[in-house]
Design goal:
Protein name (chain A): MoxR-like ATPase
Radius of gyration of chain B: 35 Å
CATH class of the largest domain in chain A: Alpha Beta
GO molecular function (chain A): ATP binding; ATP hydrolysis activity
Pfam family, one (chain A): AAA_3
Strand order of the largest sheet of chain A: 3-6-9-1-10
Largest sheet of chain A: 5 strands, parallel
Structural class of chain B: alpha+beta
Number of domains of chain B: 3
CATH superfamily of the largest domain in chain A: P-loop containing nucleotide triphosphate hydrolases
CATH architecture of the largest domain in chain A: 3-Layer(aba) Sandwich
Helix content of chain A: 40-55%
Radius of gyration of chain A: 21 Å
Oligomer: heterodimer
Strand order of the largest sheet of chain B: 5-8-4-1-13-12
Number of helices of chain B: 25
Largest interface: A-B, 30 and 32 residues
Number of strands of chain B: 15
Number of domains of chain A: 2
Chain lengths: 339, 762
């Protein structure tokens, strides 16, 4: 399908693609992302996984490390509609969802769609908005629809929210409630670039932003085809059991106040499928699950206060707990009964 | 507390109760072995309650999260508290803080217990002081065992168990009870296994690599060594081994071959009850009949117990002429060559009266009164001695014996002493039996006839069953009522009754070979004397003739001296022809019943067979222990074969190969965790050892495909199976080549994969 990038929506029925094609397309997206954020392959891969698994991504870090740049690069790599909402304390819910306005000429109310009506929505500094506005995003994210004045408007597919936020310790922020955090498939933390990457960044951005060089490499149909391809990845009973065991372990662990939801289990399997597909494999390994446990489950776990006090930050405590759980959970290795 | 520490603590809590239980079993099983020497069973429950209290206190403290050392401290405190509450009540302040009077009361209890051990016969009555000794000792053993667990040295408990186990053997000198031994060994090995497993689960991870297979291996090796020692030591030390275990204080007080601190004649009973007798000595003699070989005389009965004379005065460096023997008594001299084999004794077995002794080395001393020859202290072990002795065979005439009348020289008065509290039944029976006899000789013959007349039966078990084993006055009274016992009771009764009737008497202890001649050496008969032929008989003194042995013990088939028979006493005149010393035609002792435990071994052949059987058992047990040591290796080989075979047959050949690889890695001390994915384990292998990474990768991929891919339409081909097998063998060879020699040996003999089933990566 060499012409698919140049002729968007030419094939509305979106032909199936195989793993080789999947690899080619994902490689192109990865190249775009890495051109923008130097030396952060893990972060780029994770954001791609979330996009292909039809999830929402929460990027959390201190200001100025490239959160928004990553989100923009991801959105621009896909020739899909992109909108960006800068969350502020005075942002109203209707700014997000849209509003019904009375059209005097037509003598009726007309719905004016908000920023959320796009394939990829960049919700910048989401924790600066009031809780009321934050929760307006809730329904959109999970139900993929907007209800205004009793009328329900469906959102486009694909629909993915890439939210960035500053750590909650910073001033003037409203912490995301647990319910809203649970709707994000994964949370990633950018981290500071290393010295070489930072130097390269200075050089690259002297004249223009690298974002300007980014072209869309995948159209909407291809994106959906990739999503379907990843969904076809095989998950054995053993791996399903393994995921469930890990989830159960988080609910039993003495250092965890609130374990992960069943939705988290679902997200973990979906993300693991994409991860397997990205490696060109048509089945999920426990290793895929292991690698995704911290980003997918980490933001949903509420550690006990004591556990937090024992560590530098809550994030460290959660990571340590999750890694311990992963190591303690037996990896199924079932031999056939017939000898 | 970090997550790791907390997890460790939980694991310890879960596992340690099993260790504590195993400790109690390891104490309780050998303790139950004391049952034959202590009456009832209350003492066992009391002692185990004490041990349980100590171990339980320690467990409770450890389980509630305190440091293990506090657990040991708690066990000790409970030991002190329980001891003073039960054995020194009311002496402690508020019942908690011990005072000097508490300690005094406890010490007094111990001293009394020591006295009880001396005085009481087997089985002992567990009086309060003995109960205190057993309970406190058992409690202390429990505390020490608990400390050994905390110190992660559970193998030490084997020493405690062995000490408990050998206590009844030391006191009773019985053969090792195989069932009890197996139970003790099994409980000990169980303890080692549990302790190693619990230990392995909680050990800090940085050491887990080096310790993965070592802890159970070391423990099992120590255990097996202890088992072998415990089996060999009692088996190869013959006869009178009680000395080795004896309390030194008592040993100094009573220098006896019979294991000090215990009524010496009980030892004799023990030897008679030995199930597999061994050869004590062999001798050839020019005499035409087997000879009594005397080792020691029990002369002192003033205290109520027949004892050897402890007075060392008057010992001489040569043999003296026999006491009281007049020149006109007919005699002949016989020469006997004695060769001592298994007997460990400070006294030489000699025929009485001996006149010359050759080849017995230097430094021996003889008692002029009894003719007992004692070896010097520097050489108080007679094993291996060969010597030649000339002795007299006396053939006194009936007139000479009758002429002794009732006269006794005043010098022999000590040999007429009786205890003040002699039960009246003894003197009543004596006077009744000898009612018609006028001379000492007639009385002696009447006494012997009384015992051999058929109303008494020979049994080595009855005295134990009826609790009157021993030669003290009470035991004799009981014997006269029950009318069943063995040579000690017959000899002691006759000697005591002779003293009642005014005949100087003493009890000789030595050997009498009641067997047939085993073979002839240089035309002379050679007799083989076994441990269960240890015998005792009374010697009675007649003026003008001296000391003569009598034989009141029926049922042993011993030919009785002719002069001791009523027929001899009634002969009107004595012809000039020499009278045979012993009567062939009228042995008054009946041939023994078949039920008699010693009856089956009466013939020499049977004895050597029994001896051979004993050694065969020892060899078989040692071989069994060695074989048991090979069990882990065999199980491992079997498992490996099963895995390899399943590679060719199973639907999941790669998984089988992977499991075998994990076991193999465990054997070589590589950590294998249940939380490992195939990729993590493969990576660990590659990190640790120089292993062909292509093989690891291909095997890993095969496992991953097998386990996690959709393989509904992909049966495994033969070529793939062959590849899997080749990869497995090549990885295993690489691991083995990398390992040191000691690691290889350990992996083969004590494969850790059999003991450590799961571990966690660091």
């Amino acid at each position: 399908m060499p012409d698919s990038t140049t002729q968007p929506s030419a094939r509305a029925d979106a032909a199936e693609i195989d793993l080789d094609e999947f690899a080619r397309l994902s490689g192109a997206i990865m190249a775009n992302l890495e051109a923008v954020i130097n030396g952060k392959t893990d972060v780029a891969t994770l954001s791609l996984i979330v996009l292909l698994a039809e999830g929402h991504l929460l990027v959390e870090d201190v200001p100025g490390v490239g959160k928004t740049t990553l989100a923009k690069a991801l959105a621009r790599s896909v020739s899909a509609s992109v909108s960006r909402i800068q969350f502020t304390p005075d942002l109203l819910p209707s700014d997000v969802t849209g509003v019904s306005i009375f059209n005097q000429q037509a003598n009726r109310f007309e719905f004016k769609p908000g920023a959320v009506f796009a394939n990829i929505v960049i919700a910048d500094e989401i924790n600066r908005a009031s809780p009321k506005t934050q929760s307006a995003l809730l329904e959109c994210m999970e139900e993929r629809q907007v209800s205004v004045d009793g009328v329900t408007h469906r959102l486009d597919t694909p629909f993915s929210v890439v939210a960035t936020q500053n750590p909650i310790e910073m001033e003037g922020t409203f912490a995301l409630p647990e319910a809203q955090r649970d709707r994000f498939m994964a949370r990633i933390s950018m981290g500071y670039p290393d010295a070489d990457a930072e130097l390269a960044m200075l050089h690259n951005r002297e004249l223009q932003s690298p974002l300007d060089d980014i072209d869309a490499v995948v159209n909407r149909d291809e994106l959906q085809a990739m999503t379907r391809c990843a969904r076809e990845v095989f998950v054995s009973r053993a791996v399903e059991q393994y995921v469930v065991n890990i989830a159960q372990a988080t609910r039993r662990d003495p250092e965890v106040r609130l374990g992960v939801s069943p939705r988290a289990t679902l997200h973990l399997v979906r993300a693991a499928k994409v991860a397997a597909a990205l490696e060109g494999r048509d089945f999920v390994l426990p290793d895929d699950v292991d690698a995704l446990v911290v980003p997918v489950l980490g933001h949903r776990i509420v550690p006990t206060r004591k556990s937090v006090n024992d560590h530098r930050s809550g994030v460290d405590a959660i990571e340590e707990t999750l890694i311990r759980i992963v190591q303690a959970t037996p990896v199924p290795l079932v031999a056939a009964r017939s000898l | 507390m970090s997550a790791r520490a907390r997890l460790d603590r939980r694991l310890r809590q879960r596992g340690s109760w099993m260790v504590s239980l195993a400790v109690l079993i390891t104490i309780g099983v050998p303790l139950a072995g004391l049952a034959p020497i202590i009456q009832g069973s209350d003492w066992w429950f009391a002692a185990m309650a004490m041990a349980t209290a100590c171990v339980g206190a320690s467990w409770a403290v450890r389980a509630s999260g305190f440091r293990p050392a506090f657990g040991v401290a708690a066990a000790f405190v409970v030991w002190v508290l329980v001891s003073q509450w039960f054995f020194a009540p009311g002496t402690a302040i508020v019942g908690i803080i011990p005072t000097p009077s508490t300690i005094g009361a406890l010490i007094a209890g111990f001293i009394d217990a020591g006295a009880q051990i001396q005085v009481q016969t087997i089985p002992a009555d567990p009086v309060a002081s003995l109960m205190q000794l057993i309970c406190m000792a058992c409690g202390l053993i429990a505390v020490v065992a608990d400390a050994a667990i905390v110190a992660r040295f559970p193998a030490f408990i084997g020493v405690l168990a062995l000490a408990l186990f050998s206590t009844p053997s030391a006191v009773q000198a019985r053969d090792v009870d195989v069932v009890r031994f197996m139970a003790t060994a099994a409980s000990f090995l169980l303890l080692l296994w549990i302790a190693a497993r619990v230990d392995g689960n909680t050990r800090p991870q940085r050491r887990s690599m080096s310790r993965a297979g070592r802890s159970p291996a070391t423990a099992l090796a120590l255990g097996a060594a202890a088992v072998v020692c415990a089996l060999i030591v009692p088996s190869v030390t013959p006869g009178l081994t009680a000395q080795a275990f004896a309390d030194s204080r008592n040993a100094a007080r009573l220098p006896s071959v019979y294991g000090a601190g215990i009524d010496p004649v009980i030892q004799l009973g023990r030897d008679l009850r030995r199930t597999t007798p061994i050869v004590s000595l062999r001798y050839t003699t020019t005499a035409d009949k087997p000879l009594y070989l005397k080792m020691v005389d029990l002369t002192d009965f003033s205290t109520g117990t027949w004892q050897p004379d402890e007075n060392a005065d008057g010992l001489v460096q040569q043999l003296t002429s026999p006491t009281g023997l007049a020149d006109d008594v007919e005699r002949s001299t016989v020469t006997t060559d004695v060769s001592i084999e298994g007997l460990r004794s400070e006294w030489l077995p000699l025929p009485y009266p001996a006149t010359t002794l050759n080849g017995a080395g230097r430094g021996w001393t003889a008692d002029p009164d009894t003719g007992v020859v004692t070896l010097p202290d520097s050489r108080n072990d007679s094993r291996g001695d060969d010597y030649s002795v000339d002795s007299l065979v006396l053939t006194p005439s009936a007139e000479q014996l009758a002429a002794a009348g009732t006269a006794v020289s005043p010098a022999l008065n000590p040999l007429l002493q009786l205890p003040a509290d002699l039960p009246t039944i003894v003197s009543d029976v004596a006077n009744q039996v000898a009612a018609g006899a006028t001379t000492n000789y007639d009385r002696a013959v009447a006494l012997q006839s009384y015992f051999t007349s058929g109303q008494f039966t020979y049994s080595v078990e009855t005295p134990v069953a009826e609790s009157f084993d021993g030669s003290n006055a009470e035991a004799l009274a009981a014997f006269l009522e029950v009318k069943s016992g063995y040579c000690v009771h017959f000899a002691a009764s006759m000697a005591t009754m002779a003293r009642v009737l005014g005949i100087p008497s003493r009890i000789a202890i030595g050997y009498f070979p009641n067997s047939a001649v085993s073979r002839y050496v240089d035309g002379k008969p050679q007799y083989e004397v076994l441990t269960d032929q240890l015998h005792s008989w009374p010697e009675l003194y007649f003026e003008g003739v001296g000391w003569l042995p009598f034989e009141p013990t029926p049922g042993l088939g011993i030919s009785v001296p002719a002069y001791s028979l009523p027929a001899f006493a009634e002969q009107p005149t004595q012809s000039t022809a020499p009278t045979p010393q012993t009567s062939e035609v009228t042995p008054t002792t009946r041939a023994r019943d078949k039920a008699d435990p010693a009856a089956e071994s009466s013939a020499g052949e049977t004895r050597s067979l029994a001896q051979l059987r004993g050694w065969l058992i020892v060899v078989a047990v040692v071989a069994g222990v060695c074989l048991a040591g090979l069990v882990p290796a065999s199980v491992r080989i079997w498992r490996r074969r099963r895995f390899l075979a399943s590679i060719d047959r199973s639907d999941t050949p790669a998984t089988q190969a992977w499991r075998e690889l994990q076991d193999f890695a465990r054997d070589f001390g590589i950590v294998v965790s249940r939380g490992d994915t195939p990729a993590t384990f493969g990576q660990r292998l590659l990190d640790l050892r120089r292993i062909p990474s292509a093989d690891v990768d291909s095997l890993r991929r095969a496992v991953e495909r097998e386990q996690y891919a959709d393989r509904r339409h992909a049966p495994v081909g033969g070529l793939e199976r062959a590849k899997i097998r080749v990869a497995l063998i090549s990885i295993e060879n690489a691991i083995r080549d990398e390992a040191e020699q000691s690691a290889r040996r350990r992996a083969r003999l004590l494969p850790a994969s059999l003991f450590v089933r799961s571990d966690r990566p660091s």
